[in-house]
Amino acid sequence: MAMPLGGILLLFLVLLAAAVAGGGGGVWAFSSSSSSSSYSRIGEQPLSLIGIHRATVGIDAAASVQASPRLLGVKGEDTAWVTVDFAAPHASDGDWIGVFSPSNFNASTCPGPSGSDSGPVICSAPIKYQLANYSSDYGKTGKGTLKFQLINQRQDFSFALFTGGLSNPKLIAVSNKIAFANPKAPVYPRLAQGKSWNEMTVTWTSGYDIKEAYPFVEWGMKWSPPTRTAAGTVTFDRESLCGEPARTVGWRDPGFIHTAFLTDLWPNKEYYYKIGHMLPDGKIVWGKFYSFKAPPFPGQKSLQRVVIFGDMGKAERDGSNEYSNYQPGSLNTTDTLIKDLDNIDIVFHIGDITYANGYISQWDQFTQQVEPITARVPYMIASGNHERDWPNSGSFFNGTDSGGECGVLAETMYYTPTENRANYWYKTDYGMFRFCVADSEHDWREGTEQYAFIESCLATVDRKKQPWLVFIAHRVLGYSSGFFYGAGGAFAEPTARQSLQRLWQRHRVDLAFYGHVHNYERTCPVYDGRCASPERSRYSGAVGGTIHAVVGGGGSHLSNFTAEAPPWSVYREMDYGFVKLTAFNYTSLLYEYRRSSDGEVHDSFTVHREYRDVLACVADSCPPTIPPAT
């Protein structure tokens, strides 16, 4: 039977929404500046567009590539701008420049037996690329100049000129090699709260194995003698990953990841620190000098400011990789947070961290992008589909969105206070806040290990001292009128609310945050699909329901909404942004949604509530009571 026209249109819209709702698919978008063909894919990892396994080699004596300067970071910098001059005898719109690291990227680096005539000639994707015609007049003269920003990633670099577009590349020229003065230098520290309130962890990356140098952190309070704390060292290999491209063209040696635990911190005290590596001869290779403020004691009444967003990803400041089609808001979010960093105490990036999707080099580039934030305030992450999902790997969803990473990169590159790093759920206290961070890529339903964790996390907080109770997950387990969720009819992940809403209600959860859908939306205080209050901007009294917010507009391509807003949807916006919570004391909280483009507030409300209001019985929140004796 032929499908009616209306049915075809509905099917198209559902498929379109599925592609932009945060999953692994993409939507074709036409662009005059694309490579060999006239399109790129919105929502597709740009490096995956390169058919590197199909590459051929035809070095042309009339073609050339020259990169300068040859030595980078001579004053200890971990980023540098490089000028690439190139020429081709037959310039075309399909020509492009790829950055390869290590600089040697021929067939000798391919895994498995070498010397086979039938194997690929190039086995590793570039770490970034630019189209040759980004240089003006290249099409007319066959000569061009491009600027690339490189970061210290432990290996040297070379630049390659290809013809034939991205899908059928042909190598015609390779540049000289360039390198950082110390490729192994310790870089890109990431702070995170430890398992106890007075513990801060410092994680960073270097090229030093424990056999070459001893990693440590030198730290202390101002005017006090510093102390040194040793760091543990881990890494992973290709066989640790689950599938392509992470094990094949996306593989790149991750170096070594180090974590130190700074303990017995004084609440709210300012500390300074430096990461370092002691060589066998006693010399020390130092990182940069940083500082952080220790967390407040659980229940401490002081000004506390929290930022929450999801789905940010990374972008390129030099215009590489056509990221304008993939994560166009990422740099705006990053830069806006950096500008306001003196007014931020802790950050939650709740899943879909880098969108590396199996291209390992992109994790280094993300850690460099957010380093001004992560080096100064705790940066707490949650697991999303683009970190974890892979078939037959234990993830709840059997998709391929992680590109074969299956959680290994997120679990290794960033510390979280989980009991088991493979199960990415945890609780963390910050002063008057309790955060219960769920892992939506593992089963959350009643009777599971994670359900027991969620129940314990919500039940064990002392609301007299920590009145602000927050639930976090990547996928929408509460409410969203994003088109994909609306088309499915559940307005959330199927069975999610049925499993969890009674827990939220019983324990009077104030706020629940989600990513996955790339937009912003806030609900009323809602329980079982009904608003507990008609108020929109000033809430007070008993907690009649939980306010749910989708904050997936951190940077990735945006997602649309259903045509009509459901009754529980108070505010929704298809733009990039983040939420900032400010707790002034035990009774007053300010909620603000800020756009990444300008940092201005576009949605807000206040909560004023006393402890007796938290105790008050509302629908399904209290057990039956015995009437007083007469």
From TrEMBL:
Residue ranges of domain Purple acid phosphatase N-terminal in the record: 189-293
Principal location listed in the UniProt entry: secreted
Enzyme class: hydrolase
TM annotation in the entry: none
Signal peptide: 1-21
Alphabetized UniProt keyword annotations: Glycoprotein, Hydrolase, Secreted, Signal
Subcellular location: Secreted
UniProt-listed InterPro entries: Calcineurin-like_PHP (IPR004843), Fn3_PAP (IPR040974), Metallo-depent_PP-like (IPR029052), MPP_PAP (IPR041792), PAPs_C (IPR025733), PAPs_N (IPR015914), Purple_acid_Pase-like_N (IPR008963)
The keyword Glycoprotein is annotated on this UniProt entry: yes
Catalytic activity: a phosphate monoester + H2O = an alcohol + phosphate
A GO CC term attached to the entry: extracellular region
Keyword Secreted belongs to the record: yes
Residue intervals of the Purple acid phosphatase Fn3-like domain: 65-182
Domain of life, source organism: Eukaryota
GO molecular function annotations of the record: acid phosphatase activity; metal ion binding
EC number, UniProt record: 3.1.3.2
Cited PANTHER family: PURPLE ACID PHOSPHATASE (PTHR45778:SF38), PURPLE ACID PHOSPHATASE-RELATED (PTHR45778)
Subunit structure: Homodimer.
Family: Belongs to the metallophosphoesterase superfamily. Purple acid phosphatase family.
Name of the protein described by the UniProt record: Purple acid phosphatase
Organism of provenance: Oryza nivara
